[in-house]
Specification:
With about 300 residues, the protein is an alpha/beta fold. The chain contains 9 helices and 11 strands.
């Protein structure tokens, strides 16, 4: 966003359902966060709600490919082009995900990837990358990340130190070779979960929209009695996580926006229902069976 020239007062539209890094960096770059509701079933930004958020101060849109599934990029791109807005894809959870056959991260002006250890492609510490097809933008971003210069001792702008550590890069280079195989395994695990859990009363398994290839960074179900289910699974030895328990507009840092439930009905509704079940490329058939049995037991004993 610095490289794209975001300045104080510029408005950037992003999803109401994501990790706070997405919105916090808008503020850190000097912009103003403008939240947009999500699609009820895919959790990604709702293209039908974006245009109403655009004002004369809007400069860009940041869709998030949440949980491993692409946002609906065709209408989002059409809106960005129609209003001459830049577009940054947040691909932190979506390594190798595709939209209509095309890899995420290749649609917008730039895209960000996280290599946090828990990601589908993870380092042994904090790490990440930015990609772009714009050579001039790539140069500006690299310059900003290297204390304002690309040559040692040369500082053409004020920047910061945001370079990827060489050790992390070496680890990632080795793991990258396995990413496609790990992704196939995650999809197989999801298929097994889908087949077993879709039959369980009260359970809503992850929806995959037409034309999208999910990579299942997280396997997120929905349930009306989420807290009870989570506690039951914990007692049964099954660890779960809530990603994310509070939609971004309702977090304390954004209280100044005065957001109401009706402003983001889908994000607000999903925040109390989402639950991430165990998912990894290494999970065994036995472990999948234990998760399914525990979920099924909850359904049979709690009505």
């Amino acid at each position: 966003m610095h490289a794209l020239g975001v300045s104080e007062g510029d408005e950037v539209i992003t999803t109401a359902h994501s990790w706070i890094a997405t919105s916090a960096m808008i503020t850190r770059a000097g912009g103003k966060v403008v939240f947009c509701d999500t699609d009820r079933d895919t959790f990604t930004i709702d293209p039908n709600a974006i245009e109403a958020k655009i004002t004369s101060r809007t400069v860009g849109i940041i869709p998030v490919h949440l949980y491993g599934q692409s946002a609906d990029m065709d209408p989002i791109l059409a809106i960005a082009r129609r209003h001459k807005l830049w577009l940054i894809e947040d691909c932190a959870q979506a390594h190798l995900a595709r939209y209509k056959g095309k890899l995420v991260g290749t649609f917008g002006d730039a895209a960000t990837f996280s290599f946090y250890p828990g990601k589908n492609l993870g380092a042994f510490g904090d790490a990440g990358a930015i990609i772009t097809q714009d050579e001039a933008l790539a140069r500006r971003m690299a310059m900003f990340a290297r204390h304002g210069g690309l040559v040692k001792g040369e500082h053409l702008i004020e920047g910061l130190n945001s370079r990827l550590d060489g050790l992390q890069a070496a680890i990632l280079s080795v793991k990258l070779k396995h990413l496609a195989g790990w992704t196939m395994r995650r999809r197989e695990v999801a298929r097994q979960y889908d087949a077993a859990l879709a039959k369980v009363a009260g359970m809503v398994v992850p929806a995959v929209a037409e034309g999208r290839e999910h990579v299942y960074h997280l396997y997120v179900i929905r349930h009306e009695r989420r807290q009870e289910l989570s506690a039951y699974l914990k007692n049964a030895g099954v660890q779960t996580v809530i990603n994310y328990p509070t939609a971004l507009p309702f977090l304390p840092p954004y209280a100044y926006l005065g957001s109401r439930e009706q402003d983001y009905p889908n994000a607000h509704r999903n925040q109390s229902r989402v639950l991430s079940l165990p998912m990894s490329a290494e999970i065994s058939a036995r472990q999948i069976g234990l998760v399914v049995d525990a979920v099924s037991s909850f359904a049979s004993t709690h009505g």
